[in-house]
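Exercise 7.
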Amino acid sequence: MTAKYLEELRTTESEPLETITALQAGKIKFYSVIENLLIESLSGKMLIADFASRFHFIDPDFRLYDLDQPSLETDAILVDVKEFKSGNATLAQIFLRLSDDLEKIVLTPAQILRFCLKFSKHLSQGDCGTFFPTRIGKKYYCFYIYSDDGWYLHVTRIKSNNFDYWSGDFKDPGRPRVVIKRLTAEEF
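Solution. The predicted structure, written as tokens, is:
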């Protein structure tokens, strides 16, 4: 079943990749907190369900929308952690502010899980949380992780304008964070 699903991911072109655009949110400001954290090459076989003991809560939408699927194999990548300084924006505006092509910054679910295991100290503490852009199938999602006596994992569509923790000015230590694939010089 897993091999068939992965083959479908590689070859399916009948449905176009979701296109996400957003009005520019020019007042969004970020701090670069940590750059060039290395996530090694991964087989993509890690599933969210395998990490149930690490999370105090896992959003039932993962199961409802069948999002807990294996990822494609990935090469080693560098990731950057950006901390939100100020501004008001939707998720689409946040991620498109970091790159006008979401494909350049998304992480696979397996890479997100690996980041949580390897770099948990770089997750935002408290209820502001850490946001990860990802693509599952042809649609873009955001994994959102926050801490409140344990780690909570949520998911939402990036296209959704209803999910917005990004408003106003944030003070230390509770700034939300975004983790993205590091852009190369050519991709800026």
